[in-house]
Amino acid sequence: MPVFTRPDGVRLFHELHGHIDAQPLILLEGMGGDIPGWRRNIPVLARELRVVAYDFRGNGNSDEPPGPARMATFVDDTLALLDALDIDRAHVYGQSFGGMVAQELALTSPERVRTMILGCTHAGSRHAVRGKGSKVPKGEPWRAMYSPSFPERHPEHVAEDLRIAGAQPKHPDGGRRQWEAMQEFDSFDRLPSLRVPTLVLHGTEDQAIAVQNARLLAARIPDAELVLLEGAGHLYHSERAAEADAAVLDFVKRHGDA
Q1: First CA to last CA distance, the chain
Q2: Residue 68 confidence (pLDDT) above 80
């Protein structure tokens, strides 16, 4: 189990996939996410890229945060891991909470970012566009992660997701620390200063973060490209893995030398 230890003692679990000489792509997961959540994407992305997947502090196999964590904490963890792997510049692919970490990283250390892919995320709680809200049965909050009809149309897919997620380590404080970091995050006014090639990805039926947030991000970031996956939910990369991966690889190929 590859583990990288931070100065505060937090151990960060990570995995490497793909050819060592390929351009690096680091995956930044959502709040409470883990590396297995990318399992449908990593094999495809790793055919052409050197994929770095890691669990944030408070997620998956990484340790709990020992105290409060700010967005800068997660950015520092990410940069330190890239340093440890001798990666100067990487393609940065963040989803949901990970997309906020990606924005902060690109805004504060743009020289480390080849391209940025923002999936199902927003520019901060103060500017987030609220959707209609998800109406899911009591005791089944996981339904909000999918498009409304997906669980009925693909029960085996959802059952596998729930089984694998349920087998991961539990972190009672991790989600709270990430939620706290998210509350102070605000990139809205700074986004027009970005000069990093950016792709914004979002499912049109996202019940957790409304699709209007993707349109806002694409409008605020200079020359950003917007790809909307019609009918997909918050876990668009799971529901529509082939389409999502194709969009990412196409974008990286076109901007990889930026």
Answers
A1: 33
A2: yes
